[in-house]
């Protein structure tokens, strides 16, 4: 299972939302103005969210 984390101190949340836009498994979703991790067990470890994050606050690791 994947371990997905977001560094909320650096994350722009609703002002950005790039990670939620590109996540094919909808693990990262935008709720209000915050990125929320939903069902990390569905993560395919594609790491696209990490690639698009301008603040480098998303991390995906194989658990």
UniProtKB/TrEMBL annotation:
Entry-linked Pfam families: Fer4, Fer4_6
Keywords tagged on the record: 4Fe-4S, Iron, Iron-sulfur, Metal-binding
UniProt entry tagged with the keyword Iron-sulfur: yes
Gene Ontology terms, MF aspect: 4 iron, 4 sulfur cluster binding; metal ion binding
SUPFAM superfamilies noted in UniProt: 4Fe-4S ferredoxins
Domain 4Fe-4S ferredoxin-type: 2-33, 34-63
Record-given protein name: Ferredoxin-3
High-level lineage: unclassified sequences, metagenomes, ecological metagenomes
